[in-house]
Write a structure and sequence with these properties.
- This protein is α+β, with helices and mostly antiparallel strands.
- It has three domains: 297 residues, no CATH class; 156 residues; 109 residues, Immunoglobulin-like, CATH 2.60.40.
- The protein is built from 18 helices and 14 strands.
- Strands 2, 3, 8, 9, 11 and 13 form a six-stranded antiparallel β-sheet that branches.
């Protein structure tokens, strides 16, 4: 009994150590140094803590992970061997035959597992494939699951047959199967080993499912942050340690209950009480938590569209015409603009069809989940991208600003765009909010961008303060553009660009015109460069005119979005001729107003 209790305790400790090791490895992997960016004060504290832990782990991997795991694993493996065959004792190993027999048993066992590994590699199959399916685009089912059960059943049966007291090892008195006083029971060994392997595989599948569900719950809700947080790792560590400790205890119980030893079935039934009771408790606990999370946090919803009740019907794709240069040969670029956006989270990619109704439902979804949900951060991501994609720039920036308090990428994009936005009280308010040192921590890569925003808004005193902060942090001057140098003369803050557009002699319906900063990257507008480069957007009025005002000093590029019937996106740009084609537009103090006149677009349909 002492040996059995020791084995259960050791297996539990092995699970605990493995859980700690996995958690520390995840911290080391998922702790990027983002202290050069803009972080909330809480995020800054978390990243400093996690970075410190990651550095200590990297410096002491052997001490923290390798040695404890190896030591506990070896001791546990030894006790497992003694459980499978109580005849392996110091007394029985005194004879030369016993030593040779045990050596042959271990070599044969190692050969079986090596052969299995070779076969897996040759067939391109691995026992790990059905497990750890988190963030997989494919549902793991069918043949991979069957192969996992088959492999563990075969390996379990062979292990029991080779090592077991009722198998080949016996009492180690000879190279025959069984013991000197009892016959071997090879079929029983194979059956018990296969059953133990199948039940253990089922346990691993359950752990995989539980890990996937709880990992999403932790990363999207319980850690209370859209970014990596130390609170999330605490929950993750607690989950891993608890789950693997209980798993180790259950595997120990299964091993004792199905061990290939000379015991009656009453002995086996009693040993299976522990894993059976733990299985019932764990099942009820996991299902209860899962049901609560499904109701309160939408854990059972497959995507944001289902969670928020979004419509799948959308308008057809529109056409974007980008005016790149002032010549008629290659002055325009055509592209399709789908009426859908992609939101990203730990749940994977969420594609949402674009409509005012869907975006309104997403706003209500966020409001209806004040305690968070699995799709809260995805909703923020989709919301600001969606309004930007509709070229509703004011609402796009409003929800981008709100998303910035939860997600890092929107705030970095928004701060990067400040050096070209219209000079309005609202945009200045955004910049002031991002420069509040009571809320934010500022890394050396973000400070020059804040300084550039204040310069663009003609707020030189504030810009000077931020340039001093950059110098104190020793920002690399080679990486800081000329725009952070305070100019000698005031900056333009009331620039205007106006003009009119016709397509084939008519004012195009449902058409918007947008102004982009001259540093628009690439030859296409995308959801990655649009929030940074789009300055303003306006719908054409009844006379086909547009007006951009409150513009700052700089260079701009014009683009329009219209219906595909007006300008098909699938045709060659050579079939589009533009009269009075606008090239890059430059505004400064001397040239504060630009009238582009009537831009006449002729499309060969």
């Amino acid at each position: 009994m002492k040996k059995e209790i020791s084995f259960i305790v050791l297996m539990s400790i092995c699970g605990l150590v493995t859980g700690l090791a996995v958690t520390t490895i995840l911290i080391a992997i998922a702790s990027p140094d983002l202290t050069n960016q803009i972080l909330t004060i809480a995020e800054k504290q978390d990243f400093v803590t996690m970075t410190g832990i990651a550095e200590r782990i990297a410096e002491n991997t052997t001490l923290f992970i390798f040695l404890p795991t190896l030591t506990v694993s070896l001791i546990t493996a030894l006790f497992c061997l003694l459980v499978l065959n109580p005849q392996i004792t110091i007394t029985n190993l005194r004879s030369r035959t016993a030593k040779l027999k045990l050596s042959a048993v271990l070599v044969t066992l190692a050969g079986v597992y090596l052969l299995a590994a070779v076969i897996e590699y040759a067939l391109g199959m691995t026992i790990n494939r059905p497990f750890m399916t988190f963030m997989s685009d494919n549902n793991i089912s069918g043949i991979p699951i069957i192969s996992a059960y088959f492999e563990t059943a075969v390996l379990g049966g062979l292990t029991w047959l080779i090592v077991g007291e009722t198998g080949w090892a016996g009492d180690l008195s000879s190279f025959k199967m069984g013991s000197a006083d009892k016959k071997a029971r090879p079929l029983e060994c194979l059956a018990l080993g296969a059953l133990a392997g199948i039940l253990t595989t089922s346990l691993f599948f359950s752990i995989d499912w539980t890990f996937n569900r709880f990992f999403l719950l932790i990363s999207e809700v319980l850690d209370q942050s859209g970014e990596t947080s130390i609170l999330g790792f605490k929950y993750l560590g607690l989950m891993m340690v608890t789950m693997l400790t209980v798993c180790g205890c259950m595997v120990a119980g299964l091993t004792l209950g199905f061990a290939p030893v000379n015991r009656d079935w009453g002995y086996r039934y009693r040993r299976l009480i522990l894993p059976g009771a733990l299985a019932v408790v764990c099942l009820l606990s996991v299902l209860g938590i899962n049901q609560h999370a499904a109701v309160k946090y939408d854990l059972d919803k497959k995507d944001l569209a289902q969670a928020a009740g979004l419509s799948s019907s959308a308008e057809q794709s529109k056409t974007i015409l980008l005016f790149k240069s002032a010549d008629n040969s290659s002055g325009v670029l055509l592209q399709e603009w789908p009426m859908a956006v992609e939101g990203y989270s730990m749940m994977g990619k969420n594609i949402v069809t674009l409509s005012e109704e869907n975006l309104t439902r997403i706003i209500k979804y966020i409001d209806n989940h004040p305690d968070g949900s699995i799709y809260k951060y995805t909703a923020f991501d989709v919301l600001f991208k969606g309004y930007h994609a509709l070229w509703d720039i004011e609402l796009g920036r409003e929800y981008q600003f709100k998303a910035s308090f939860h997600l890092m990428l929107p705030r970095i994009m928004m701060i990067s765009s400040m050096k070209s936005l219209p000079v309005t009280d609202r945009n200045i308010g955004y910049l002031r909010a991002f420069s509040d040192e009571k809320i934010w921590y500022f890394g050396k890569k973000i400070i020059p961008k804040i300084a550039a925003g204040f310069i663009h808004f003609n707020m030189f005193d504030e810009a000077g303060q931020w340039i001093k902060k950059a110098e104190q942090l020793k920002s690399d001057q080679s990486e800081i553009s000329d725009w952070i140098v305070i100019p000698a003369a005031p900056m333009l803050t009331a620039g205007k660009i106006t003009g009119g557009i016709k397509v084939n002699g008519y004012i195009p319906a449902n058409t918007k015109v947008a102004l982009f900063s001259a540093d628009l990257t690439g030859d296409k507008i995308s959801m990655w460069n649009q929030p940074i480069s789009m300055v303003d957007a306006r719908a054409l009025d009844q006379e086909g005119r547009f007006l951009f005002k409150n513009l700052g000093q700089g260079k701009y590029t014009l683009a329009l979005m219209t219906e595909r019937e007006t300008i098909p996106f699938g045709i060659s740009a050579d079939r589009i001729k533009v009269k009075n084609l606008p090239g890059p537009i430059e505004l400064n103090i001397e040239k504060s107003v630009v009238d582009l006149g009537d831009i006449e677009i002729n499309v060969e349909l």
